[in-house]
C-alpha cells in the first residue's frame, strides 16, 4: 500500500487503448499469419490486463503462458537486476513466441527475458510492450511493437500498479503526490 497521498491524472483513456490494441492485433496477425504454434507469453503481473485484451482481438490460434520477472518491488525505481520468479509452464523450442510486457523502461527486463527465451530456440520470437519510455533506456533493446510512447513519468492503471494498488483502473494515468 502506498505511503503518501496521491492523485492519478489520466494519460491514456480506455477508449484510446482499445483502439490501439485493434491496430496492433492486425499487425501481429499479419506477422504470424498461417501459424498454428504461437504462444503468447505475458510478463506478470503488469501485463495481465493488456494480454487479456490483446489475445481477444488477435485472430490467430494461440496458447497463453506466463512468466514473472522481479522488477520494481514496491518502489518507483528499477533494480536493474532481473530475476525470474516464475518460469513458463511449457517448452517453446520450435514454437512461435510473442512476449507481452507492460512497460519498457531501462530495458533490462525485456532484454534479459528475450535472451533467456531465445536460448530455448523458438522458431520465431517477437516482443510487444504497451508503453515505452525511450528517454529512460539504459541498454540496447527495443520491442517489436509499442502501444504508446510515454514521457519519463511513473504510471499506473490498466494492470500497472503503484505498490500493488491501482491495477484495476481501466485507463493509464500518472501519479502525482499531493
Ligand atoms: P525495465 O527498467 O527493466 O525496462 O522495466 C522494469 C519493469 O519496471 C517493467 O517490467 C515495468 O513493469 C516496470 N515499470 C517501468 N516503468 C514503470 C512505471 O511507470 N510504473 C510501474 N508501476 N512500473 C513501471
Ligand atoms: Mg513489469
Architecture overview:
Strands 4-3-2-5-6-7 form a six-stranded mixed β-sheet, with helices on both faces. Strands 1-9-8 form a three-stranded antiparallel β-sheet. The chain has one domain (13-150): Rossmann fold. The model has no long low-confidence stretch (mean pLDDT 95). The chain is globular and about 50 Å long. It has three helices and nine strands. α1 (14-31) packs across α2. α2 links the parallel β2 (38-44) and β3. Helix content is 22%, strand content 31%. Guanosine-5'-monophosphate is lined by residues 46, 71-72, 78, 101-109, 154-156, 160-162.
- The 3D shape can be described as globular
Low-confidence stretches: none
Order of strands in the sheet with most strands: 4-3-2-5-6-7
Q: How many separate domains?
A: 1
Describe the structure concisely for a colleague.
With 178 residues, the chain is of the alpha/beta class. Helices cover 22% and strands 31% of the residues.
List keywords for this structure.
single chain, 178 residues, alpha/beta, Rossmann fold, globular, binds guanosine-5'-monophosphate, binds magnesium ion
Write the layout of secondary structure elements.
Elements: E1 6-12, H1 14-31, E2 38-44, H2 48-57, E3 62-69, E4 84-86, E5 96-104, H3 108-118, E6 124-132, E7 145-149, E8 155-156, E9 172-177
Parallel strand pairs: 2-3, 2-5, 5-6, 6-7
Antiparallel strand pairs: 1-9, 3-4, 8-9
Helix pairs in contact: 1-2
Bound molecules: guanosine-5'-monophosphate and magnesium ion.
Guanosine-5'-monophosphate is lined by residues 46, 71-72, 78, 101-109, 154-156, 160-162.
